[in-house]
Amino acid sequence: MRLLAAALLLVLPAAAASAADRTDTLDAVAKAGVLKVCTTGDYKPFTYLDPAKGEYEGIDIDMARDLAAALGVKVEFVKTSWKTLMADFTSGVCDMAMGGISVTLQRQKQAFFSIPIDVDGKTPITKCENVEKFQTVEQIDQPGVTVIEPPGGTNEAFVRERIKSAKVTIFPDNTKIFDEILAGRADVMITDASETRLQQKLRPGLCAVHPDQPFTFAEKAYLLPRGDVVFKAFVDQWLHLRLHDGSHAKFSAAWMG
User: N or C: which end of the chain has fewer CB within 10 A?
Assistant: First the structure.
């Protein structure tokens, strides 16, 4: 019995580590005939699960389909959330994660990232009449101001670190969160500049606040298994080509114009 218990202690950590430190993804995907991609489905323009169609769409969804075609396999999207992204990814339920994912050092501890796709950063979005009121973090971080954010992810992390006096409301549905600002139940959201540019187009009355001069510098990339240099090399080369042959620009233009 003691020997069995000891054996389990040796096997379980190795099994747990294998998902985060997978080194055979390229061969495994080819053998399975499917590329499993974790994505939140709540972050236009990158990933959106259309409830009416039951289908994913977005820039990174198109890119995922293109990558699967380059690999000669089908793509399967695995629903995740910003709060559970890293736990889902490292559990091994998907081969990679896509959908407007920001590169952070905390995530880098558990995974590889592809080469960067975009440069982005945190900036406010608010009603157009309030743009001048919310130019700086200091102007936002005032009693009587309500900042709204989705749970988990880099948006919440930013406001937890920087917002001390304003009220912070965590709203569970990132597809409807901007309507809370329009309805007057929140004053401002701090999110990626790319998202603010799209949302001001989709929701008249909302305006991005200095999206060309965000509060932070960040890059977006695709999340890959830690240690799998072969798969990373393939994804990086595919991405390098798509960033220069017009494919990524075409997918982006369909959303951003």
Answer: N
